[in-house]
Amino acid sequence: MWSEATKIGEGRRGLMLMVVAPSGVGKTSLTRRLIADHSDLHLSISATTREPRPGEHEGRDYHFVSRETFDQMVGEDAFLEWAEVYGNRYGSPRAPIMAALERGESVLFDIDDQGARTIAAQAPGDCVLVYLLPPSLAEMSRRLHARSQDSEEVIALRIARAKDEINRWETFDYVLLNDDFDRAYADLAHIYHAERLRRARNPWIGTFVGNLRGEEI
C-alpha cells in the first residue's frame, strides 16, 4: 500500500511563467484570466521605492519600501532581478518566489523582456518564457489609441520599442499570436499545464514508479 508521502503529485515543483509582450497586445487580460482559473498560480509582487498610487495596497499591488531598504536588499542579493525606471526602483524578491516553487506553487511575472531574461539566466530550469505577438503593428496601435491612456508621442515610442523587442522572439520558449483572445488563452493555458507535467518538475514520479515495481498483485 502506498504511503501518503508517495501519493500522486506530492512533491511537484512549481515554475516561473514569464509572459512578455509589447503594450497593447493583451497580456494583462490573458494573464489575469490564467491566474483566476488556476489556484496554484500567483502573480509575482514586486518591491518598489515609489509611493503608492490611489487604490494600491501594500502586499497586493507592490511591496512599498524605502530607497535605503531597497539598496540593502540589492546588497544582500535579495532580488532575482531589479531595475530603475523613471527614478524609481523595482525588483522581484527572491525568497518568497523560490519558497512558492518549493511548495509546488507557480509564479507568473508581469515583466519586460530584459527582466525575464535576467531571471531565466539565474534559474533556467524553473523558468518558462512566453512571448505574445500582436496580429499587426497597426492593430497594436489601434488598441493603444482605443484605451486612451497615452499621448501620440508615447504611443509612437511604444511601437518603436515593440519593433526592437520583437527581434528577440527566438530567445523565448513559446511564441503566441494574440489575434483571437479565446484561442490565445487556450494556448497559454495548455503551455502552463504541459510545463507543470514536465518530468523534472515532478520528482515524486521516481518513488511512485519504484512502488509500482514492488507492488504485489
From TrEMBL:
- The Guanylate kinase-like domain covers 14-193
Q: Which InterPro entries match?
A: GK/Ca_channel_bsu, Guanylate_kin-like_dom, Guanylate_kinase, Guanylate_kinase_CS, P-loop_NTPase
> What sort of enzyme, by top EC class, is this?
transferase
Fetch the PROSITE patterns from UniProt: GUANYLATE_KINASE_1, GUANYLATE_KINASE_2
Principal location listed in the UniProt entry: cytoplasm
Provide this UniProt record's keywords sorted from A to Z: ATP-binding, Cytoplasm, Kinase, Nucleotide-binding, Transferase
Where is ATP annotated to bind? 21-28
The protein's location, in the record's own words, is: Cytoplasm
What does the protein in this record do?
Essential for recycling GMP and indirectly, cGMP.
The UniProt family comment states: Belongs to the guanylate kinase family.
Q: What is this protein called?
A: Guanylate kinase
Biological source species:
Peiella sedimenti
Q: Which gene encodes it?
A: gmk
